[in-house]
Input
Amino acid sequence: MIAIVLLSLLAMTTPAEGRVDRRPPIDECAADPSFAAFRDELNNAVARRDRDFILSAIADDIVTSFGGDGGRAEFVDTWALDAPAESLIWAELSALLALGCADAGEGRYAAPSLYRQLDDQGDASQALLAIRPGARLYARPDAGSPVVAELHWDVLTPRQVAGSDDWWPVSLADGREGFVRRGDVRGLLDYRAIFAKVDGRWRIAVLVVGD
Output
């Protein structure tokens, strides 16, 4: 009887203990040979910072912002491709291409794959995914504070407490709370790309951030 009572009390005080929610990247695109070849070319172009290839790989009406006119001129201006060596596009494309690829429907693909993987979250736009190997959840916004958890593609929920540009207050699926470095996580509102075939060739149709 005592054992049953203790077990009942434990269940009431730690209802989420042991619960995890992890979403490692998926690749739903590799089975399409034409897209796989395009993605390889795109990765190689990003590695060598090939402006000409990038401009050949975008759709004429590419969407680069919400509310903008779109198109090539806006894309070049947004990414400062008149000075490609200093452009931030290489880092952004490299990051999102490394995080999987999902079927976006209607013959399109999306990267990173979390664009689809977090769709089932209560407020998907707010969900975050720990993406850095060795990422940690800290008790305070300080790498010298106690480590609450080691993170392995864990889904994180932002908390309504004060954070900073470098640290975000979050909670795990099991209820543990703490702070994570901003660079260790990625959300649905970070940069994402949509790829579509235009006149039989793969193109970057959308490259946006925010909502």
